[in-house]
Amino acid sequence: MNRIVETSRPDAPGYFDPSDEGEGLLDWSAVEQRLVSARNYWVSTASPSGAPHAMPVWGVWLEDGFLFSTGPRTRKARNLAANPRAVVHLESGAQVVVVNGIARQVFDADLIGAFVSAFNPKYGWNFTAADLRSGGLFEVRPLEAFAWLGDEGSDFSATGTRWVFESPPAA
User: Fold this and answer.
1) CB 3.0 to 4.6 Å from 137: which of 64, 86, 106, 168, for a disulfide?
2) 6, 67, 79, 137, 167 from 70: Cα distances, Å
């Protein structure tokens, strides 16, 4: 498991009262459940020139990170080959979950199998491990995550939480 090393308020001067540091912080397990149950995710990458690129994807959150597939010649894959930093976030602007992390291409047979086993029933798809053995599967491991929960227009400062994770192991 990718260990959490710090839980705090996000560093956003003017939005959070430093005196309430421990009050209303979210529990990571509840946020992780939102990542597991989500259907649509947005993945953001940056081109070698720094141009941002955001695209919706289907994927699965497994214990240590977010896995998604993409063609090896897609903009996402080319961007990640040049710069492995990525952001994954859910669709809601009120029930917010944002994960900043490091992406790596996955070739490990066990992780490919776990992806296929989770992805196919979730989306009614028919991936096989053979479809992904030669590339096209990426995992984003968190370095930092942010979440806040509320209704549209609610004060996110009441639940705004930031987690810092151990750096993922080198691929």
Assistant:
1) 106
2) 32, 10, 12, 6, 24
Q: What is the chain's pLDDT, residue by residue, as a tens digit (171 residues)?
A: 579 999 888 877 777 666 666 778 899 999 999 999 999 999 999 999 999 999 999 999 998 899 999 998 999 999 999 999 999 999 988 889 999 999 999 999 999 999 999 999 999 999 999 989 888 999 999 999 999 887 655 667 788 899 999 986 665
What does the angle CA 10 – CA 37 – CA 131 come to, to the nearest 5 degrees? 110
Q: 45 by DSSP, 3-state: which?
A: strand
Residues in a beta bridge with 41:
57, 90
pTM: 0.90
Strands 137-148 and 161-165: antiparallel
Q: Mapping DSSP to helix (H, G, I), strand (E, B) and coil, where does residue 171 land? A: coil
Please give the backbone phi and psi of residue 133, each rounded to the nearest 5 degrees, phi first.
Answer: -65, -30
- The ranges assigned to domains in the chain are 4-149+156-164
CATH number of 4-149+156-164: 2.30.110.10
Please report, for residues 18, 56, 139, the alpha-carbon distance to residue 37 in angstroms, rounded to integers and kept in the order given: 32, 16, 17
